[in-house]
Amino acid sequence: MMAPEDLHGLFGEAFETLRRAIEGFQPPLEVQETGVVTTVLNGIARVSGLPNAGYEELLKFPGELYGIAFNLDEAEIGVVLLGDHWHLRAGDEAERTGRVMDVPVGEELIGRVVDPLGRPLDGKGRIAFRRRLPIERSAPAIMDRAPVNAPLQTGVKVIDALIPIGRGQRELILGDRQTGKTAIAIDTIINQRDKDVLCIYCAIGQRAAAVAKVVAELEENGAMGYTIAVVSEGNDPPGHNYIAPYAATSIGEYFMEAGRDVLIVYDDLTQHARAYRELSLLLRRPPGREAFPGDIFYIHSRLLERATHLREDKGGGSLTALPIVETEAQNIAAYIPTNLISITDGQIYLSPTLFELGVLPAIDIGKSVSRVGDKAQLPVYRMATGNLKLDYAQFEELESFSRFGTRLDERSRRILDHGRRIRAVLRQPEMAPAPVPEQIFVLLALGKGLFGPIPLDKMKNAEQAVRNAVKELDPEILDQLYSPEGLSAAGLAAVVGLCEKALEPLKEKPHE
User: d(Cα 67, Cα 376) in Å, to the nearest integer?
Assistant: First the structure.
């Protein structure tokens, strides 16, 4: 049995240890920096009291409303709001989140329609995503990029033949309202079926009915199985319109970095520029040309610079961008169109004059260009197109001249006759993309003058007959159409022979 003095010493040490532990205990404190909303305007708020907030940091407001810190002034922060802000009032609290704006990415998004925050809009339930990426990311370094050398077939004859687009290229589509800009983009998406290309359709400030029509067309043609639609409607806050293309690009980059080929359509960047102008003017940023802020070029260049083709050791994926921009009264020298023309690798210009004449797609070949050129084209196209672009340009010049009623020589009449057949062949209905073999057959028949004896009113039937002749081609020669060497002499003779055979019944018979 222990003596009383020993027990006292033992308990004394225990009490002393406990006392020191209590005195040294400091509960973990979560310091939450909060500010106060001072002003709420159309899509923006001004917040005071967040001295440590960073540029483009995500801020949280009551009612699960978020915003992006855009202006970091000395006394307050200008915040772009991302959602309905009707309930937000001056005096409400704003909290820092410590993170930048991000978006969910992954396979789960394929086939879905989402808003720029990743929330579903298609009524198919919530998306069980596993990863998020910031919407603002640095473009791949120059040394991580590979040349653009693989074609992205659009299925539109005039584009694939004369204005080819490569995987990793940025090709601008521009023209006045209602000239078929979106139709070309939708045809390109539809043509990616069974080609292992993931597509992203990004609608920026579009009418809800127009977006619903596009999604319905994609569903009807079986394209939503490999497409993601990122939608910001016209009545959404301007902050949604501003972040939509960046969110869509981050979604595309996830797949590109996984080694896949991705096509992204921005429809359209005119609305994006207007949304950014609205936000900038509300935030009291100095206006410049056409009231656009001085960094409007920068916001589009940092977006489109993210489209590229990665080196093989970086996965070998690609992100091809088809930005759409609207012109007014055919003025391609306006501020936003010229900005985007200088950023991109070429443009497809749609002429309202051709559209009114019923020449669809209404692509003006003279004003359209691909700066990547035939490096992004199957070699067989070079054999098939030949002098097609030059012949068509000569035809257009002569056509204008011939309207004055001048008597033309035989050579000029032949040029006009051939040009009318080129125009007839390059016409194409919407949502009817043409496969490569059928395009090559038609272009070779055109280049060899096989449509010459065909009356103009029978050109549609003649083209269909040539396209049907593809079924009779030997499979070995069919494979040559996709090979780096192109068609052999024997293969070319076989194709021309099939075209002549198909056109024989439609030739104009000489008068007795």
Answer: 41
